[in-house]
User: Fold this.
Amino acid sequence: MSPNAGPVWIDTDMGFDDLAAILMVAASRPIAGLSLVAGNVILQQVERNALAAAAEFGWDFPIHLGAAEPLSGRLATADYVLGSDGMPGRGRKLLSVEGNALPDATGAIARFIEGGGRDILAIGPLTNLAHLAQTRPDLLTLPDLRLVWMGGSAGPGNHTAAAEFNAAVDPEAIAILIDAGARICMVGLDCCRQVAVTLDDVEPLRVQPSERAQLLADLLEGYVRIADDGRRPMALYDPVAAAAMVDPESVIFAPARLDAELNGTLTRGMTVIEWRARKAEPNALIATTADAPRIRALMQAALIHAAEG
Assistant:
C-alpha cells in the first residue's frame, strides 16, 4: 500500500487502543471525521468516550453516531475484559462531557468519499460500512479506495476459539462488504499479536510533567494490565492497523481470498483465508508481518505528542 497525505476517516468503537490509534493518525494525517459503532461497549458509551476524548485532545473534526446493533442477532460487547466504559485504567479517566454526536454515520462516510476521501480506517465491527455497502456500493469499489480494518484472524480467535472479536460481533457485515466488491485490507489477530506492550512502555509517559501525560499513562497501564495484570506482554490491536494506514512499510500485506463464516455453531465469525490463488481469486489484502519496534515507536511518539499538545 502506498503512502498518502490526504485525510483519513476513522470508524471506531472507542476503547483505549482505538484512542491510541486515532492519536497515531492525528500525529501525521488530517482526520476528516469519526463514525461510531457499538462493539467494545454499547453505543451510548462509545459516544461518551468519543466526546470525552474530543474534549480532552481538542479534536475539531465531526463525530457521527452509527449502528447500535449488528446486522443480525444481539450485540456482544467486550465489557467482560474492558469494563463497562471500555477503557480500563489505573486511576485517571477521560472526563465525561455534555453533548451528543452528530447523526447519520453512513451518510457522513458517503460524503467523505464523494468529496474525494479515499482512506478509511475501521477499528471496530464493520456494521456502519456494511450499511454503506447496502445503500451506495459504488463508493466502496472505487479503485483507489483504501479500507484498512483491524479485525479477523488468519489463525485462532480471541472472542471464541475461531473468531476475533470485531469479526464475531458482526460477521454479516464482513460478508456484505465482500459481496459488494469492497477490497478489505485486513489487519488480523495473528499480525497484531506480533506487536506487544509492557509496563515498561508506560514509563516514557510517566516522566512527562503534564496532567494529560499522566492520564494517558494511566490508560495505557490499564490496557497493559489486561494481560495477567501486566505480568505478560499485552498485544496491540488497533494501533497496528493505524500504523498500516500512516506508515505502510510497517505492515506487510499479501493477497488472499477472504470469507466470513456466518452459520457455524462453533465457528460463526471466523474469517476464512484462502491463500492459494489457484483455489480462489484473491479479494482482499491480509496483513502477515508487523514491524514491532517501529509500530511501538510510532505509538509512543503519538502519545507523547498528544500529551504535550
In short: The longest strand covers residues 251-260.
